[in-house]
Amino acid sequence: MSDALDSAKPIKKPKRVLPEHFKSYTGVWVFIEHERGHAHPVSWELLGKGRQLADSLGVTLAGVILGGTDDGVRALTDEAIAYGADRCYLMQSEVLADYRNQPYTAGMTTLVNTYQPEVLLLGATTQGRDLAGSVATTLLTGLTADCTGLEIDMSDRSLLSSRPTFGGSLMCTIVNLATRPQMATVRPRVMPMPERDATRSGEVVTHALDLTEDSVVTKLVDFIPDARADKPQLAFADFIVSGGRGLGKPENFDKVFDLAKVLGAEVGASRPAVHAGWVDPERQVGQSGKTVRPKFYLAAGISGAVQHRVGMEGADVIAAINLDAKAPIFDVANYALVGNALELLPALRDAFERRLAAARARRAAAPATADTGEHA
Ligand SMILES: Cc1cc2nc3c(=O)[nH]c(=O)nc-3n(C[C@H](O)[C@H](O)[C@H](O)COP(=O)(O)OP(=O)(O)OC[C@H]3O[C@@H](n4cnc5c(N)ncnc54)[C@H](O)[C@@H]3O)c2cc1C
């Protein structure tokens, strides 16, 4: 599945006319998610996609930043512009210092009602999902969750939001015909990261939030930094070696870890390997696990069910090891290794170890040559 509706065939839409008062809604918005001024990368990925949508529509792309009053939050406007936004809507208030649903919903709906965008995109993260649901219900508009493709239907400027359905066995395209903004959430790493261009310039529109702390029901008692910082960061790994049920037993997963260590890769897994307790659930790749977009993905003993593929087929290069030459994983693989993973994984580890050691030795012998072009 690509990030585009490659197969976008004309869709038969029921005849619903957009009410007159929504026709003035214009522009594509992306919610810039952050934690105390540290942006979540999905925000930049969505700006990349938002840029394409805005260009198709011939409208501006805006980043929406809600947060506390410190400079780190304001600095996000420069970043959003560097990643493609023409404009940023900035709302700063002490009640927005840390994410809470009520003030963030109040802030976002105020901005939407004031500046009237036609499309609003958010990351399908814990925060983005929470906010998107309450903003959509407050505005009484439609929201498509966990999209894997977003395109514009130029016949009526509507947003075509595609996503897997029926357990991933079908793709559906959802269109919001009668309300605005058209809202969608997209998981991290589904859309490619755009190039950052620090020379871009844009406009910053500041807007005050009319809400005080005594009207907010939830209180922040303590701030506990994300304890997952030292857990596998699969979604952002450049190299991933994954294992599946074909490895047979938990001890055999060591061969996946051994190759990953040599490559400096993260370890992923299919759902059966996780369900069998062979590896941590954080490592599951696929529809009910992580979506990854590495430069290189190796699948060992994984059949390539669609629920696994939706999570990894955005990888630049895919290699697969499988005993069965007809395994569906080979349909998406650039390199097919038909054979026993229990033999091929150690063989690959030894081969990469030798080759990388040789490359390191060459680099050490010729320090003036900064990059020999040898990479894992
Ligand atoms: C709602 C839903 C959500 C799901 N979400 C996910 C998800 O997020 N991620 C996910 O992975 N799955 C998910 N699944 C499960 C998915 O449908 C498949 O069942 C699963 O991906 C299969 O895992 P597997 O490839 O490891 O196992 P299998 O399908 O059993 O494949 C094992 C493969 O290993 C090969 N093999 C066997 N021995 C060897 C050997 N020695 N060397 C090399 N190859 C060998 C076999 O030929 C076979 O192709 C989901 C299913 C549903 C219904």
UniProtKB/TrEMBL annotation:
GO terms for biological process: fatty acid beta-oxidation using acyl-CoA dehydrogenase. The keyword Thylakoid does not apply. Signal peptide: none annotated. The keyword Flavoprotein applies. FAD binds at residues 245, 270-271, 284-288, 301-308, 322. GO terms for molecular function: electron transfer activity; flavin adenine dinucleotide binding. The lineage of its organism: Bacteria, Pseudomonadati, Pseudomonadota, Betaproteobacteria, Rhodocyclales. Its cofactor is FAD. Keywords: Electron transport, FAD, Flavoprotein, Transport. InterPro entries: DHS-like_NAD/FAD-binding_dom, ETF_a/b_N, ETF_a/FixB, ETF_alpha_N, ETF_asu_C, Rossmann-like_a/b/a_fold. Residues 28-220 form the Electron transfer flavoprotein alpha/beta-subunit N-terminal domain. Belongs to the ETF alpha-subunit/FixB family. Binds 1 FAD per dimer. CDD domains: ETF_alpha (cd01715). This is Electron transfer flavoprotein subunit alpha/FixB family protein.
